[in-house]
Amino acid sequence: MTQTLAILLTGILLLPLQLMWAQKAFECGGDFYLVHNDSNGAHFYSSQTDPSNVNLESLFTINTYNSIDAIGFRITDNLIYGVDTQSSKLLKIGSDGVAEELTVLSGAPMHAGDVSPDGRYLVLVSNDLSLMVKIDLNSSSYDAEFLPITPINSSAPLQCSDVAFLPNTNQLYAYDELTGRLVTINIDNGILNNIFYPVTSYTKQVPALFFDWQRNLFGISRAFGSSASYFSQFSLQGNDVMELDMTNGFDGYLDGCSCPFGVRLEKAVFPEAILPCEDAYYTFIITNYTGENTGGFVLRDNLPPGIDFKSVIYNGLDVEPVISLGNQVILSDFRLPEKIDSLVIQVESDALTTGYFPNQAIIESSSQAFSTLSDNPLTINHQDPTFIELLAAEEDMDLCAEKEKKVYAPSAFSPNGDNVNDIFFLQTANQISFENFEIYNRWGNLAWSIDSGKTNDPIYGWDGISPKDNYLPNGVYAWKAKLIFLDGFSFTYSGSVLLSR
Q: Three-state secondary structure along 250-294?
C-alpha cells in the first residue's frame, strides 16, 4: 500500500470516530429498527426487511424513557434520532443504548417522523397531516422550521401514524389510515398528494413505516384497538398490501425506521489542490450494506476538466476500469464485495486549466433499479461533490519540465502473492533507464540489487526476496538507484520502503 493510499484510507476510517465520539454507532446493514414503549422503558429491536424472515432481535432497553417515537436513522453518523413524547426532548440514540438529550421541542408534533436521506433534517408530521416541522440536525441549536401541509384533495380528513423517506430523495411517504391509501409530502413546499395512489380496503393503523434500499415500502400494522401486529409490504405500483403475522404482540407506543442505503459510494481526493503537471489521487470507497455479493453494477466518473487519468494504484474490485477520452473512468458489470473495498487512481493536471472544480461519481444497477451518487466523506453533508483546485504556476516555474525528472517510489509494498502491490519498482513520467538499483537492510547490508533496468516496469523491481531466494523479513529497507534521463542528465536517488507481507 502506498503512502498516499494509507493516508487516504486512514483518514476515511478515522472520520466516523471523529463524528461519533460520544456514542456507539449502529451498523447500516439493511435492517429495520423497532422501538416498543411500555411502563418498563423503550425496547429496541432489529430485523431484516424480508417478509419471509421477520425475526426480531432484541437490542437494548432504555429505562429512562418509555415514550420514544418519530425515530429515523441518520446516515451521516449512523445514529437514530427521535423524540420523547412525554418531555418533548429531541434524542440521539446509539447502538449501545445511550440516549443523548439534544434540545426541547416546543409545539412540534411528536409521533410521526423520519430523517431525510441527506441526514440534514428530522422531519416530524402531525397525525392529521396538517403540520410539518423540519429540525435542522446540522444546526448546533437544532433550528425548527414549521410548515403547513396542504393536501391536493382537502374534502376528507386524514390520519397517519408514521412517515418514511423514499431513499435518496426528498419525497416523504405516509399511509392515510382513514382512506387506506399511500400519500406523499413534498418537504420543500408542504404539498400533500392524496390523489395519486388508489384507495384500498386496508384501513389498519401503521405505527411504523420504512423503506429498504431497493425502495420497497414496509410497515408494522395492526387493527385499531388491537395489539396483534403484522409485517406489511405496500406496493408503490398498485393497491396491493402483503401481510405477514408477527410473533410479537405490541401494545403501547410503537415506531420504526430503517437504514435503506444498501450501497454507499464515497470519493476523496488527495491533495485537494495541485499545480500544473502535478499528481493527485482519487479514492473510491464502495460499501455494500445489503449482506449479499451482488453483480451487474456500473461505476462512472467524469473527472474534472484539466484532470487526466494516469494509472490505477489499487483496485479491490473484480474488473479493470476503462478510460475514455483520458478523463472518463468506467467500471462495467462488476460484483460488489459483501462489505467494503476501494479503487485508487492516480491523475495528473494539465498545464493550462485553473479553477475550483467539483465532481461526483455514480454507481448504478439497471437490474435492481438502483443508483447513487458519490459522497465526500470529509464533510458532514451527504452525497456532496468532491472538490479539487487546480492552481496556476508562477511565471518562472516550468513545472511540467521539472516533472520529467521526478521519481515516484512507493513508501510501502506487500509481497504476499495476491498480485496487489507485490513489487517495489521505480516510476517516472516517461520510461527511462537506471543503473545500480540497490536495496539495503537496517544494518546497512545489501539485501538485493540489479545492475540495470527501466522504470515503470515491475520486471525490474524487488519482490521482497533475497538473491538466495530467501523471503526477507518485514521492516524498513533503504534503496538507491542512478537514473539516466532522456536528455542525458543522470542523478542518484534514494529513499526507504516498508516491506509488509
A: CCCCEEEEECCCCEEEEEEEECCEECCCCEEEEEEEEEECCCCCC
pTM above threshold 0.70: no
pLDDT at site 9 = 46
Q: Where do we find the cell 537514473?
A: 483
What is the chain's Cα-based Rg? 28
- CA separation (Å) from 116 to 120, 167, 173, 181, 338? 6, 9, 12, 22, 26
Contacts of 244 (CB under 8 A, 6+ apart): 51, 52, 54, 230, 231, 232
Burial class of residue 120 (count of CB atoms within 10 Å of its CB; 0-12, 13-18, 19+) = buried
Which domains are delineated in the chain? 3-8+263-390 (2.60.40.740), 30-258 (2.120.10.80), 406-499 (2.60.40.1220)
Kindly tell me the sign of the dihedral angle through the C-alpha atoms of 123, 125, 129, 130.
negative
Look at 76-85, 353-362, 426-435 and tell me which has the smallest mean pLDDT. Answer: 426-435
**Closest C-alpha to 128, from 152, 161, 164, 106:** 161
Greater confidence (297 vs 290) lies with 297
Give 448-496 as a DSSP string.
EEEEEEETT-GGGSB-SB-TTSPBPPSEEEEEEEEEE-TTS-EEEEEEE
Residues in the chain: 501
Q: Other CB atoms closer than 10 Å to residue 315's CB: what's the count?
A: 17
Say how far apart CA 472 and CA 463 lie, in whole Å.
10
What's the pLDDT score for residue 6? 41
